[in-house]
Amino acid sequence: MEASGEELGGFFATVMLHLRGVQHRVVAGSMARALGHGGKSAVAAVWGLSRNTVIKAQAEVEAGIEPSARLDGDRPVTTDAIVSVTTV
Question: What is the pTM of this model?
């Protein structure tokens, strides 16, 4: 998969506004993984993260990071809600 810096920048500019904490790392790690060779450096450069942060994020994604118990930040949700969101 190939994406230009401009395309990645547009993606992150849109998505980043809606994410907090671990969500940032999940998206950064997933994108780095999807891009393959050079993905970590590309994501770090476009999103303004350190490459080490992206490396850690990709490792967390590949290890199977657990879904958060709080999907919207403040309001806890039930395990049933998490399962239905992750299986859709």
Answer: 0.65
